[in-house]
Amino acid sequence: MFKPKTNVSVNGGEIHINGAPTYPGSARAEGLLFNVRTVNATFDDTLGKVGWWDDDGSHPENGFANYGKWVSPESAFANTQRFIAALGEYKKHGILAVNLNFQGGHPLWDRTDIPEGHGSAGARPNGHRDFYHNSGFGADGSIDPNYAKRIGDVIESCDRLGMVVILQMFYFGQDTVFEDEQGILAAVDNGVDFICERGYRNVLIEIANETMEGHYHHPILKPGRTAELISRARKRGLEKHDRKLFVSTSEAAMLKVDEGSFMASNQWTTEEVDRVFQEADFILLHGGDNIEVGAVGSVSLVACKVDYFHSQPWFTESPKPIIFNESNGQRAFDAVIERGASFGLHANNAQAMWPAKWGVWEPEHMWFFNKTKALTGS
Question: Which CATH number fits domain 8-376: 3.30.420.270, 3.40.50.970, 3.20.20.80, 3.40.920.10?
Answer without folding.
Answer: 3.20.20.80
